[in-house]
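Need a sequence for this fold. Nothing fancy.
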């Protein structure tokens, strides 16, 4: 299978080339030339597989320059029980008396966030891809994060031979636990830098660095090549498709659905990668009735699915679900390419309008195609707080602030639509990563005031009966190793300083 750019670049690339490059030379995102399918026989076979085997099977459909044996080797290492426990991504029925709602817990990895599912695997794919493409330069993983990608990427790539990893995060735009996870990261090849601004500033800065061909040539002359661990990299996105396939297989295995029965999938999202993975699972043959796109108060996606107008020219809010505090949803570009039948000229025009004016409007036909599958909605902080409390009261499950956004939007959708399809909620982070907001929801607004993060985490564990994840324990006592704070205009200079000196 070959990979092509959403913006029409005339060269086609192998999977390994696309993974190493991260982003196409014209600034577009890589997509498969065709979307592969899963037969019902293959889906039935998966009922007898463990998660790492299902993941390898899904990956093999896209990454055909890797053997299935290679992929099984990578997934067995990435999802080893020593890192994840016995069940990599548990699918949990929320209430024994309600057969409609299931939560897909994607946060049992090393950094307690769903990004681990892809970023424990990406280093294996990256190093193998470098060998397959004959790449002899040092690869620098350059990434912007709204909180979770940063630590997950650092954990995956730290001390990996032949790589450097640079993570930019927005000052004040991540939770205290997320920040501490990043700035205490060890590793001789890790670099964590705060950027004055919001996530979109950091992400735009990274994209501009990738698009600067002169800078790429300068790095190449010094033996360095840039790649990405954001979901703009296909190697980051494709492992996420696997867990949506797995969730359907698991419902079949538990006899909660009949063969061919369509389900809903609810995804809290900001950069649109996680829900796009669910869309790809549907295109591969997983029966999906509705994809519910849940936004926080930065509701640019919610407005887009309602009107077809994407407009980032609006007030930016820092919320209690900071990983979704995003106004430029990069992966939407991939969906627009697919929905328009691969109209790269139109996609490039829309992206140019977004870059130039901060806004674009899709045509009526495209909007109708989107609305046939996607449901958009948003929740503010008051709604998130109430939802965490309500879910805890009725199911004894403690959810984080991002997962709560998903429940909030779904509950309103269910009330107005009467849709009784079985529904899978993507739970994207451990509640311990956002413990102050979670405890305020459970114990009362302001409860966390004056309490240290460590105290709140301990109290949340006592309240919920949940074990504190290893990646969260004792964060405040670890030494801060990364202290740089820069302006967004200085990002490229900082990269050059790190990589060239």
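Here you go.
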């Amino acid at each position: 299978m070959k990979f092509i750019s959403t913006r029409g670049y005339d060269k086609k690339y192998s999977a390994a080339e696309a993974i190493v490059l991260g982003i196409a030379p014209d600034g577009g995102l890589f997509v498969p030339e065709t979307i592969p399918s899963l037969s019902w026989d293959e889906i039935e076979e998966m009922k007898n597989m463990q998660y790492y085997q299902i993941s390898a099977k899904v990956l093999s459909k896209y990454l055909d320059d890797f053997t299935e044996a290679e992929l099984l080797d990578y997934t067995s290492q990435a999802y080893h029980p020593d890192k994840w426990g016995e069940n990599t991504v548990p699918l949990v029925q929320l209430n024994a008396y309600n057969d409609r709602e299931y939560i897909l817990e994607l946060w049992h990895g090393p950094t307690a966030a769903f990004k681990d599912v892809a970023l424990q695997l990406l280093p294996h794919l990256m190093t193998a891809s470098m060998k397959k493409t004959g790449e002899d330069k040092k690869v620098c993983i350059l990434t912007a994060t709204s909180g979770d990608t940063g630590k997950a990427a650092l954990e995956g790539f730290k001390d990996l031979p032949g790589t450097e990893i640079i993570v930019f995060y927005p000052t004040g735009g991540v939770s205290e636990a997320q920040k501490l996870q990043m700035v205490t990261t060890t590793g001789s090849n890790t670099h964590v830098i705060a950027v004055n601004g919001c996530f979109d500033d950091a992400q735009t800065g990274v994209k501009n660095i990738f698009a600067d061909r002169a800078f790429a040539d300068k790095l190449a002359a010094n033996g360095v090549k840039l790649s990405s661990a954001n979901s703009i990299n296909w190697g980051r996105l494709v492992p996420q498709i696997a867990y949506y396939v797995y969730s359907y297989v698991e419902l079949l295995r538990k006899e909660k659905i009949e063969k061919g029965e369509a389900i809903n999938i609810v995804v809290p999202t900001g950069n649109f990668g996680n829900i796009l993975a669910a869309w790809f699972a549907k295109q591969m043959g997983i029966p999906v009735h509705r994809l519910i796109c849940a936004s926080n108060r930065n509701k640019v996606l919610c407005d887009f699915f309602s009107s077809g107008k994407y407009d980032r020219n609006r007030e930016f809010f820092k919320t209690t679900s900071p990983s979704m505090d995003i106004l430029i949803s990069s992966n939407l570009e991939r969906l627009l390419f697919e929905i328009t039948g691969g109209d790269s000229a139109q996609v490039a025009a829309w992206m140019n309008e977004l870059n130039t004016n901060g806004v674009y409007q899709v045509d009526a036909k495209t909007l109708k195609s989107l609305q046939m599958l996607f449901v958009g909605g948003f929740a503010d902080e008051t709604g998130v707080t109430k939802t965490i409390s309500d879910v805890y009261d009725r199911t004894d499950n403690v959810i984080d602030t991002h997962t709560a956004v998903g429940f909030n939007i779904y509950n309103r959708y269910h009330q107005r639509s009467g849709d009784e399809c079985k529904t899978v909620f993507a739970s994207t982070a451990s509640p311990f990563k956002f413990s102050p907001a979670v405890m305020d929801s459970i114990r009362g607004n302001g409860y966390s005031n004056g309490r240290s993060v460590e105290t709140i985490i301990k109290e949340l564990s006592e309240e919920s009966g949940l074990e504190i994840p290893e990646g969260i324990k004792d964060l405040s006592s670890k030494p801060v190793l990364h202290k740089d704070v820069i302006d967004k205009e200085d990002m490229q200079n900082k990269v050059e300083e790190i990589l060239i000196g």
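For context: The mean pLDDT is 96.
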